[in-house]
Design goal:
With 338 residues, this protein is α/β, with parallel strands linked by helices. It is built from 14 helices and eleven strands. The strands form three sheets. It has a seven-stranded parallel beta sheet, with helices on both faces. A two-stranded antiparallel ribbon has the order 1-2. Helix 4 packs parallel to helix 13. The two termini are 12 Å apart. The structure holds zinc ion (ZN). Zinc ion binds next to loops.
C-alpha cells in the first residue's frame, strides 16, 4: 500500500480526495504517526556532522549531500517521505546543539508546521549553553514557541547539548513543560555524532530519575531507549523499562536503534519490542523513526518496526496503540486521518 497515497495525491487535483494513509496489517489499515523527524538546513549542520551524515547516504547520493539533504529535509521532502511510507502525520523536532548535530530553530519548525498543519506537529527546544545567564529568557522563548499552533511538546538531547540529566539547575525546563501540559522527549543512550558527551550523566537514563520523580505532572519520553549506538547493543534498555514500570509519567520511544545501520540483523529491535510487551508497557510506547536520514528510511523503519511487533505477537489493537493511539492520548491531539 505504499504507492496509494502518492497516487492519490497526484490524482487529488482531478477530484480523488480520499488519500488513505496507514499500514495494512492482516487486512486492517492502522493509522501511523511518526513522532521523530528532523527538518532542517544543511548549512546549519557543523562540518564534522555533515561529513558523518554524507557517509551514510547511499552511493552516488553521497557525492551531492547538500542537494540531497536540501530535498529530503524540506517540508515537501518530508511530506513525500511520509507519503512513501503511507504515514499521515509526522512530528518535527527543533534542536539547539551547535557543537554536535547543529541547529533546527523553533521558528523554522513553527513555519514548517504552519505550511502543512494537517500533516505535522512540532516539538520546540531551547539553548542551554549559557544557562546561568539566560535561563529566564530561554524559558520564555520556549514558552512562546509552545504557544504556537501545532507545537505539542519539548525536545531535549543532553548528550548533544552537553548538560547533565541530573543537574537540578535545568529542572525548570521540566517544571515549565508540566505546567503547560507539554510532554518532554529526551535522547537517551550514546550517539554516533561527532562531539557527543558519551558519559553516563549525559546518556544513561538512570540519571533522569531525580527529575522524573520530582515532576510527576511532566511526561518524560525516553528516546532510543538508552541504546548504545557505538557498540550496537541494548545499552540502558532495561533501565528504561524499569523507569516506565515505576513511574506512570515515563514513556518509551524505539526510534533509530533498529535501523539497518544500527541493528543490521534486526534482532535488537525484535528483542526491544518483545520485552516491552512482556513488561506490560505497550500502552506506554510511542512510535518514531528518527528520519528522514536518507530517502526511503522513514518507510523502511516502519516496516522493520511492524516486523518486530509481528515477531513478538502484538495484536492489531496493540500495534494501533504503538503506531498512533498512544501519541494521540499523551499529546492530546486528534486521531490522524486514515
Ligand atoms: Zn533524532
Amino acid at each position: 500500500m505504499r504507492t496509494r497515497p502518492l497516487l492519490c495525491a497526484a490524482l487529488a487535483m482531478f477530484g480523488c480526495g480520499d488519500v488513505e494513509y496507514g499500514v495494512v496489517v492482516d487486512g486492517e489499515r492502522l493509522p501511523v504517526i511518526d513522532m521523530h523527524l528532523h527538518p532542517g538546513e544543511w548549512s546549519h549542520t557543523p562540518p564534522d556532522t555533515q561529513e558523518f551524515l554524507a557517509g551514510r547516504f547511499p552511493f552516488p547520493l553521497q557525492l551531492t549531500p547538500a542537494r540531497l539533504a536540501g530535498q529530503v529535509l524540506s517540508v515537501d521532502g518530508l511530506k513525500s517521505e511520509l507519503d512513501g511510507a503511507g504515514i499521515g502525520t509526522g512530528v518535527l523536532f527543533a534542536v539547539y546543539a551547535p557543537r554536535t548535530v547543529g541547529i533546527s530553530a523553533n521558528e523554522d519548525v513553527i513555519a514548517d508546521v504552519k505550511q502543512a498543519p494537517d500533516r505535522f506537529y512540532g516539538l520546540a527546544s531551547l539553548r542551554v549553553e549559557r544557562w546561568n545567564d539566560d535561563e529566564a529568557s530561554e524559558l520564555q522563548r520556549l514558552r512562546d514557541a509552545l504557544g504556537e499552533p501545532g507545537m505539542v511538546g519539548v525536545k531535549l538531547a543532553h548528550a548533544h547539548q552537553h548538560f547533565r540529566m541530573d543537574d537540578p539547575r535545568y529542572f525548570s525546563i521540566y517544571a515549565l513543560a508540566g505546567e503547560l501540559g507539554k510532554p518532554v522527549y529526551l535522547h537517551t543512550g550514546t550517539s554516533p555524532f561527532p562531539g557527543t558527551a558519551q558519559a553516563g550523566p549525559y546518556t544513561d537514563p538512570a540519571y533522569l530519575e531525580p527529575a522524573i520523580a520530582a515532576h510527576p505532572q511532566t511526561i518524560f519520553i525516553l528516546g532510543h531507549l538508552g541504546y548504545d549506538f557505538k557498540q550496537q547493543q541494548l545499552g540502558a534498555f532495561t533501565t528504561c523499562l524499569e523507569l516506565a514500570a515505576r513511574y506512570p509519567n515515563v514513556f518509551l520511544e524505539p526510534s533509530a536503534l533498529g535501523s539497518r545501520s544500527s541493528d543490521p540483523s534486526g534482532a535488537n529491535l525484535k528483542t526491544v519490542m518483545r520485552r516491552i510487551r512482556e513488561a506490560g508497557l505497550v500502552d506506554r510506547t510511542i512510535y518514531g523513526s528518527d528520519g528522514p536520514q536518507s530517502p526511503g528510511f522513514v518507510d523502511e523503519y516502519l516496516g522493520r518496526t511492524v516486523a518486530a511487533m509481528r515477531a513478538a505477537d502484538y495484536s492489531r489493537a496493540e500495534m494501533r496503540m504503538v503506531l498512533a493511539g498512544n501519541f494521540v492520548r499523551v499529546f492530546a491531539v486528534q486521531e490522524p486521518a486514515q
